[in-house]
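Question: Send over one sample?
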Amino acid sequence: MKIAKKVLNLLKEVEAVARENGAAAYLVGGPVRDLLLNRGNLDLDVVIEGDAAQIAKSLVDKKGGTFVVHKRFGTATVTLKNGIKIDLATARKEYYGRPAALPTVEFSTVIEDLYRRDFTINAMAIDISKKQFGRLLDFFGGEKDLAGKKIRVIHDQSFIDDPTRILRAVRFEQRLGFKIEDHTEGLIKASVKRRMLEATGKERLRDELILMLKENEPGRMIKRLQALAGLGFIHPKLRFTKKSEVFFNEIKKMETKGSEPWLIYLTALLDGLSLKEAADVARQFVFKKNEQERLLEFKKESAGIIKLLKTKGKIPLSRLRRHLEPISLETLLAIMVKGRSRLVNKRISIFLSECKGVALKMSGEDLKKMGLPAGPRFKRILDAVLDAKLDKGFKNKAQEMKFARRCVKNGL
């Protein structure tokens, strides 16, 4: 287990501040798991037996930066001047008033804090005190399960208390190349049989689904989730088919820079649903407005765009711009996969490289200097000049201005 020197020094500083405030500090959860697996993880999750908010304030006073406190859960996020983030949490235990509900929180000890966690491999801590720095706290056999490559819950009520752990079990299993052990898998199936996922808040499920779609192998994860729990909790008609798997695999091969790949994967996941059904999912899971628009845009626009781009003969750059400029990058990339056509892919690639982001050197101010009053006509003229720039290859402002004057003269 090797900790980078800068992280080591920072942990010691956090512990020193905690000690000065009469508190104890422990590195917990994912960072401990990944340290034991020799996997890189720059996240710093520290549990405080004491007041995490006070430690956050004292740390920022000492080192600079900012902090945000979340009083309900006794947590604070510190962002230091060098950009490093540290999540601090007051040790706590949780009570579930009813299955699938948000827990009631009560401040406690590090042992009880670890007991409330999802899986044994995520329920270990490292003491970072001056006297016992590096001592592993492993009360539930997490180190043994790491060695055996097993995903195991801490207690049998786990998936009843919090059914979103089903999605997390799949995510960790597939990310780490582990196996959900038999008893834990049985508990998942019992939770599914009781329809606990359907009883869970849609926004919580949405957040877990997004995390899954952000992983390196989202298709493999969705396929495993379907086998374990089905996808009916997202929509009764949703299925991850062979066609879906191909869609996911093709997205994985693409250059998705500048886009949100998880949204492209979600577009692919919902591809088998109707527009209304996809809209129901987008609304019920309370995706952000612009995310909903991009999801439904694919349903509304893809068939027409594919038909246009498969047209034989030359399509001027200006026409490509008019049809494709309003379309999000996520939808265009999904269309490239859906279209299954070299011509479609070529024309979208041409648009992205030669049209998207092209701007005029002239502006509305130049039209004002020509004596035109501001108004809707400005946009018509500037759009015409931009189309001409793309089709005729204008290189400078003088050429743009010359064409603009012609537009004015012709009464555009």
The chain has a mean pLDDT of 93. The longest helix spans residues 289-309.
